[in-house]
Write a structure and sequence with these properties.
mainly alpha
Length: 111
């Protein structure tokens, strides 16, 4: 059951990356207790595959730079990336406000 959960888990965008990775680490520990042998590199690949599209650049950098991190170090790097991603993403309310202000002009007026 732990393996199925691990293979079908995907991180939801609003979830904190720390919560998600700790959940995966727990599943991996459970599998280890059940005598499953998954090498460190495979564990990291499994974790990276569960990340949402917002972490696509991180995954690309990880693979291009042939990084070799433990799960704990990966968690730290992902948390740093998460803070950068959150700073770059414009808040949804600003986007809605911009959209409404550009589409709410009376007909006949030039924008």
């Amino acid at each position: 059951m732990a393996m199925k959960t691990l293979l079908t888990t995907k991180m939801v965008e609003e979830t904190l990356v720390r919560e998600h990775i700790l959940k995966l680490m727990s599943l991996l520990n459970e599998l280890e207790i059940l005598s499953a042998v998954i090498d460190k590199e495979s564990q990291v690949k499994m974790v990276l595959q569960t990340l949402p599209d917002s972490f696509q650049q991180f995954c690309l950098n990880y693979n291009m730079n042939k990084m070799d991190l433990s799960l704990v170090k990966l968690l730290n790097e992902l948390q740093a990336a998460e803070s950068i991603i959150k700073q770059q993403a414009p808040p949804a309310t600003l986007m809605v406000d911009k959209f409404l202000s550009s589409t709410s002009k009376p007909k006949g007026e030039k924008k």
